[in-house]
């Protein structure tokens, strides 16, 4: 399939190249070439017709010869000449050849006729194509008209460029104006919101101003408020005194507990253990650094176990101290 496509494309390429070369010719040269092609096709058609006529003559001659051979065979059979086997085989072979020629004659004749018809169709198509090309070439403008059209085209291109630039500039201005309108819309909403708030504040201030007109009522409210605040001051003072007494009692009890703990042997022992624990913590930190450095060289599992026991013991003592406190 690809090979057939390649062949058809190659043939189409040759045909297009031939058409291109033909279009480059003047109408007179094209007409001369067309006449030459028509003459060549006519010669080929005449040759094909002559060949067909000769083939028809050969067919008729073969049929006549075949008839003669059949007559001879019948005569020989009647005269008892059947013993001549070689002659019979030769005649039979000639008959087969003639039959084969006759059987293939129709196909050859049809192929030749098809070729003639195809050539005639090609001539008609070629004439139509040349006629169209001549019409097109007749409508082609001359150099002056072509230069004028090219100038007009350049002018139109310039105008289109200006129009495109103007359109782009207008689009940018439109976008800017749209953004400004959106900002104005936002400002209007903000102004409307602020106006509503100001109206509410103005209404509240007006209500308050109306209240200020009643001086006696304001004085009475102020006296009531003063009395209420005085009562609250006295109440809060009493609460403060009671709270202070309670705090003093708690402080005294706490100090007594602290003195009692300081005089307690267990507390003193805890303080000593706390100091000892801090010392052991420092030693434990140094020991851990030493153990980490020497862990790959020696087995310090037992020592680490002892240190952990001491650390757990100190931790338990600290927890007891915290519980006593």
TrEMBL record:
One of its GO terms (biological process) is intraciliary transport involved in cilium assembly. InterPro entries: IFT74. One of its GO terms (cellular component) is intraciliary transport particle B. One of its GO terms (molecular function) is beta-tubulin binding. It comes from the Eukaryota. Residues 31-72, 170-276 form a coiled coil. Keywords: Coiled coil. PANTHER family: INTRAFLAGELLAR TRANSPORT PROTEIN 74 HOMOLOG (PTHR31432). This is Uncharacterized protein. It comes from Micromonas pusilla (Picoplanktonic green alga).
